[in-house]
Amino acid sequence: MTTTAVFKHREIRAVSHFCAWRISRYILIILLVPLSALHYPSAFYIIAALAALPAAVNLALDSSYPERNNEALRQAAHPDIMKQYHFSRTRYQAERFGFVLALILLLVWQWIQPTEYWYDFPLGRVPVMVLFFYYISQTVFYFCYRFAIRKACR
Q1: pLDDT digit string (tens) for 63-114?
Q2: Total domain count, the chain
Q3: DSSP letter at 86?
Q4: In whole angstroms, how far apart are CA 152 and each of 33, 84, 93, 136?
Q5: Residue 25: exposed, middle, or buried by beta-carbon count in 10 A (0-12, 13-18, 19+)?
């Protein structure tokens, strides 16, 4: 592979990850809303963290390093794809932070989930199921976006 082909491949991978992380985060928030209504306060805290922290990280990085986005767009092999999917380096880092944060918060929620109550038994494994669905949906969306972007670049 030539260096330009490797660069294009990495760019497509980055945009695919970015889009998959964003869609998976929205789906996770939609899944957690009914759980917070079922009196799972941990679900509400995860929703609040996933709604606020990636935006705050994006704002902090965007104001600290505005030249990164402009430089990345100038050096891009597919600037039209980056504009179409609203991709920037700081948004990519913020979505990556949100993905890792969601995984950690779901693992902590499962770890602190009480299992000694009989009425909580069917719902006692909800955090693991949500974590599994979140990770699988991110993986599926990654491959879907990767296929769509490759098809659009041809």
Answers
A1: 777 677 667 667 777 778 888 888 888 889 899 999 999 999 988 988 887 6
A2: 1
A3: T
A4: 35, 11, 24, 24
A5: buried
